[in-house]
Amino acid sequence: xxxxxxxxxxxxxxxxxxxxxxxxxxxxxxxxxxxxxxxxxxxxxxxxxxxxxxxxxxxxxxxxxxxxxxxxxxxxxxxxxxxxxxxxxxxxxxxxxxxxxxxxxxxxxxxxxxxxxxxxxxxxxxxxxxxxxxxxxxxxxxxxxxxxxxxxxxxxxxxxxxxxxxxxxxxxxxxxxxxxxxxxxxxxxxxxxxxxxxxxxxxxxxxxxxxxxxxxx
Length: 217
Fold this sequence. Notes:
Strand content: 5-15%
Helix content: 55-70%
Order of helices and strands: HEHHHHHHEEHHHE
Number of helices: 10
CATH class of the largest domain: Alpha Beta
């Protein structure tokens, strides 16, 4: 699935080329549909809910009959507990595989952790850690997790306060909330250009080390 049109991608390439034209830094943009499959959590929830069936049944039985049902009747009821548990597990397991349902049950902290890990993986996979002068900049978006992060290499981190990047990320999030992903990327690249031209100028430019197009993963 592509989140930007071809014309939007072309404008993004132009913005990156412009931003890098007078700096030693390298800017890479990455957008991910989702940062993790989260396969185990839906199964875990289905198993826990299935295991809770006997407890819920006996709680209801105690409330309904105050514990005075004949032993034979209670025993006959329990024969159905295991098949019901299996059906609950299988049924919920299938429902929880629906992407929206799966993401809904994932704790926000887990989604942030997975997206942050994915961002760092992309920083290394895109070779941003190997730029001359350690001046790589990653602009990372993970759509399913509603996650945006800017990761910079050590040379930039030493001279640019992180609060500037945090403010830029907040602006990007505002654009995404309005379904303006392309505008968010362009605005962020413009902020990067201002910072990089000031702190890492290269008046004569230099050859590109890394791709200037949007990378979709």
